[in-house]
Hints:
Blueprint: H1 11-42, H2 46-82, H3 86-113, H4 115-122, H5 126-139, H6 143-158, H7 162-186, H8 191-217, H9 225-261, H10 265-281, H11 283-301, H12 305-332, H13 334-340, H14 345-354, H15 362-377, H16 381-392, H17 397-461
Helix pairs in contact: 1-7, 1-10, 1-11, 1-12, 2-3, 2-5, 2-6, 2-9, 2-10, 2-11, 3-6, 3-9, 4-5, 5-8, 6-7, 6-8, 7-8, 9-16, 9-17, 10-11, 10-14, 11-12, 11-15, 12-15, 12-17, 13-14, 15-16, 15-17, 16-17
Amino acid sequence: MTQAIFLQGSLMRHVSVMSFTASVGIVAIFAVDFVDMVFISMLGQAELAAAIGYTGTLLFFTNAINIGLSIAAGSLVARALGAGDQARARELATSVALFSLLISILVPILVLFQLSELFQMLGAEGETLKFAMRYGSIILPFMAFMGIGMTSMAVLRAHGDAKASMYVTLAGGVVNAALDPLLIFGLGLGLDGAAYASVAARITMGLSGLWYVIRTHDGFARPSFRVLLRDAGAVISIGVPAVMTNLATPFGTAIVTREMAKFGTDAVAAMAVIGRLTPLAFAVVLALSGAIGPIVGQNFGAQKYERVRGAFVAGLQFVGVYVLVAAALLFVFRGPISELFDATGEMQRLIFLFCGPLALFQFFNGAIFVCNAGFNNLGHPLYSTGINWGRHTLGTWPFVLVGASLAGAGGVLIGQAVGGVFFALVAVIFAWRLTGQLQSKSIEAEFEDEHRLHKVSFQRNW
């Protein structure tokens, strides 16, 4: 059985290893999505690239639920391992997996019944709407495999097994990369081929995730309805706020997509490219939340509160250095990136804008990820919910509207980036105060223990 491994050693090393290892898997998945976009662009129809952009926004909503439940799995399992209760960790992992399976079956069914209306709400119309409908209707029924895969990866990270979590996403990426050219060009399936390749990748991730958790860590217990009911409260207390937190991101993306749609198909296609480029370039930033969560959770469960704050500080330092390097590389290679998609006019201008100064604003998104991971694992998931919804409503809509009116499609991207700064600062302040309170409690507890020992010693000597 796995022991808690984050209770000692360099916190920066733990953060770096977990983040980079987790990011390899993320890069694999999003690199395939990026190649998908390149292949689809080679078919010569901007409507196809735009359709993938609209579908990606909609799938983000369904994936947000899976991500929220995986956060609950990682937090609960890490805390149980930190407290030394491995049997409880196995039961909690199983309960979250069952919840994830049920919800990721029901939600896509509901979405499929309203698919056309949902795409039209995002701004899709004409040929783009028809392409998006085809692409989405193929992928959505298989989201349950994605849910199980994400939950399994969260359990693996909670055990400190970042490598196995990476292998799960790598397996999905390899399958997708192998099938993409075969189905899109070899069999001439075009957009449908890209969708079928994505389905195969999701199935692979779900099955390989289960295999690693069971084979490597014996991380799941035998399913039990009684245990599921008993754990429902614990799962809901973290899972529901975490789901609500993650639903905020696609909500904000939907706002931006709808505003961008007013500037034409080229603008939406550019946003679809940026949407694939962002997680590829900043995969390490996206991995931070899942990387820091187990570190915070294990130390919180073991009541090592000074290491909880240390993990938070290490995370912010790490994201700052990484964003500077990634933004510089994007700026240097902005020309080849634009040429890769045959981007001209508005599409090229938007890609250049993102690969320029706007890339630096990813630091503030990274800061929010770090803080949210802390809130979720310290028993304050509603803080994450408030910060994320604030960032993707008040921190998005007004800024995007003002930006669009002042600078057109480019202003939409600028407004989206600038709006996140304030809420990142709020998140950091809240996290700093929360970890400070934990440190104070730890110092008081140590003082009381020392005082009690001195008192007992004095009484014995007397």
